[in-house]
Amino acid sequence: MTQTIYAPDFMTGDEFSIPTFRVLNPEGELHDEAQAPELTRDHARRIYHAMLSTRIMDERMMAAQRQGRLSFYMQCTGEEASVVGATAALDDADMIMAQYREQGALMYRGFSFDEFMNQLFGNELDYGKGRQMPVHYGSRKLHYMTISSPLATQIPQATGYAYGQKLAKEGHCTLTFFGEGAASEGDFHAALNMASVHQVPVIFFCRNNGYAISTPANEQFAADGIAPRAFGYRMHVIRVDGNDVLAVYEATHQARKIAVEKNQPVLIEAMTYRLAAHSSSDDPSGYRAKSEEETWRLKDPILRMQKWLNHKEWWSDDEETETQERLRREVLETMKRAEKRPSPALDTLISDVYADVTPALQHQFDALKQHIRRYPEAYPRGAKSLDLDVRDVANHAGGE
Amino acid sequence: MPTMNMLQAINNALDIAMAEDEKVVCFGEDVGIFGGVFRATSHLQEKYGKARCFNTPLVEQGIIGFANGLAAQGGVPVAEIQFADYIFPAFDQIVNETAKFRYRSGDLFNVGGLTIRTPYGGGINGGLYHSQSPEAYFVHTPGLKVVVPRNPYQAKGLLLAAIRDPDPVIFFEPKRLYRASTGEVPEEDYQLPIGEAEITKEGTDVTLVGWGAQMEVIDKAVALAEEAGIACEVIDLRSLLPWDADTVAESVLKTGRLVITHEAPLTGGFAGEIATTIQERCFLYLESPIARVTGLDTPFPLTLEKEYFPDHLKIFEAIQHSVNF
């Protein structure tokens, strides 16, 4: 309903204040007025296990990057409750279109350490055939769209994907993850507007982790976070404590109902903190204080959930120690396996550009192979995947 | 066989595709009940419902982002960008997403179902922003296919092929010919091959290569050349990515001369790619330098459109120059 005024009266949005939904306090106890979501013991343990596995894999792989075993890495550290909590509230066949820091979602859905490692090392078993930098995972069987580096492109794609799910009438939705920095991209606005106009079952899950590389949130936007933008699109919105796994789970659970039952989009803004660097190429000491990091370390989402599980007697300190040891061992073993595996075959250079290799591309490839035959020692990976006699290669190299 | 103009042929192709496969969905700005600003999608919403033919908000990056997602889900989107001049907000979605979807996922996911239709080209007093021919930007992007029809018959057959092609296709429609070009078009379903050029006229003295609206201009130039006793071979490339270098090379081996024409500016235009490939393959057979007749390296003008345009006289002059070299 349009209200008329007869003197100018400007608004800024400060008239609205968006509350933050919380269930657990930092001690892992329920807030007085809060209720725990309906989670079984097994489900709660599956969530915790995925969060813990993500943390341990991240620590180990960042160390591997520092040792020079891996070219690049990105940690989910500090945001495990946001990512795993949201994923756990979905049906396992709902589509997830993530940004790049959401390996916890795949962990929850059962991506194995071997599968992670094959991608990270770009070996011949990598589903992506060694074409993308580390952490660009994808899994068709787990309904997890392959990661793409350009920021926010996945957000309007999620709207389109969910539109297809709506037409298919199979009761599925899409959840897309993105950071508060990516929400500045035009694709974010395009996606939310189209989802609202076309009534699409999609959940826009913003991980507001405080930083886009070095740029703090207060230099990213002037408003009260990302959540108020939903008003402009007349979209359901909720802000949630992103380090509180029960709150994230419950908010996403309710959001999914709105999406699937009403075919309406929902925006969730999870307030969290990127405890680690942006990536292995970044050093946060140049742009934020250690003390700030320490404050957030006290709000560690994994510790908080662990305490809650302990209160419920669904988890124990002994189990914690055993699990951590087992996970560290598994990560190490699978890493050793993956880094020894050969690179993808040379012909994966030209496959999948199109459904079928075009004659022109085949022609370029044939010329490349002839060149490699002439200089096999200069292209060790290429030479190995050609039908060259290994002794010829050795002789040729030795003769120089 | 009925006579159709190009818009009717395109509309007819969309109708056939939507009737055959319920996964085919058409959308874009003003595409719904209005049927698009050029009416290419007329009556499709009435026939197939709002869920399968609809207006989108005015946001090209959203249209193609949405289309990429829908195609990845298994849909067959036919997205319209109202003018090719306005495709650039969607450039990231097309170049970084559409084109690389299959490759980057190791074929776990693809957007092969996607077709992007967009009117291009000058000759309608459209000035800078309703006249451009941006094909070269996209031809530089592995993973895309780029198709341009020259008349109604070609438009229908190539569009049906594009929609059913396992790879994403950008379908540039010569808007100057939307109503100006008419011809016999079969009512039934048929497809024309993507990636194959067509020799529209055989000749022995010089080869002319073009695509889309420029084919009509070539024909006028050829008429002048034939009067002057020059036998021209004319090739419509039809598909720019992939493009049929074999057919062009074979022709130039015979004629020894090549004139390429497009509306887009000279520098970095697709004629440069054709010229390079042909000199590689036909070097010892060339009787004269390969000629390019194109727009100038300026933005597309308005009042001086006629002077800018690579018209039949400029092409005729290039033919004469090539033959008399």
From TrEMBL, chain A:
This is 2-oxoisovalerate dehydrogenase subunit alpha. It catalyses: N(6)-[(R)-lipoyl]-L-lysyl-[protein] + 3-methyl-2-oxobutanoate + H(+) = N(6)-[(R)-S(8)-2-methylpropanoyldihydrolipoyl]-L-lysyl-[protein] + CO2. InterPro entries: Alpha-ketoacid_DH_E1_comp, DH_E1, THDP-binding. GO terms for biological process: branched-chain amino acid catabolic process. Coiled coil: none annotated. It is an enzyme of class 1 (oxidoreductase). Signal peptide: none annotated. Its EC number is 1.2.4.4.
From TrEMBL, chain B:
InterPro entries: THDP-binding, Transketo_C/PFOR_II, Transketolase-like_Pyr-bd, Transketolase_C. SUPFAM superfamilies: Thiamin diphosphate-binding fold (THDP-binding) (SSF52518), TK C-terminal domain-like (SSF52922). One of its GO terms (molecular function) is branched-chain 2-oxo acid dehydrogenase activity. GO terms for biological process: branched-chain amino acid catabolic process; response to nutrient. Keywords: Oxidoreductase, Thiamine pyrophosphate. It comes from the Bacteria. Its cofactor is thiamine diphosphate. Its EC number is 1.2.4.4. It is an enzyme of class 1 (oxidoreductase). Residues 4-180 form the Transketolase-like pyrimidine-binding domain. The branched-chain alpha-keto dehydrogenase complex catalyzes the overall conversion of alpha-keto acids to acyl-CoA and CO(2). It contains multiple copies of three enzymatic components: branched-chain alpha-keto acid decarboxylase (E1), lipoamide acyltransferase (E2) and lipoamide dehydrogenase (E3). PANTHER family: 2-OXOISOVALERATE DEHYDROGENASE SUBUNIT BETA, MITOCHONDRIAL, 2-OXOISOVALERATE DEHYDROGENASE SUBUNIT BETA-RELATED. This is 2-oxoisovalerate dehydrogenase subunit beta. It comes from Vreelandella salicampi. The lineage of its organism: Bacteria, Pseudomonadati, Pseudomonadota, Gammaproteobacteria, Oceanospirillales.
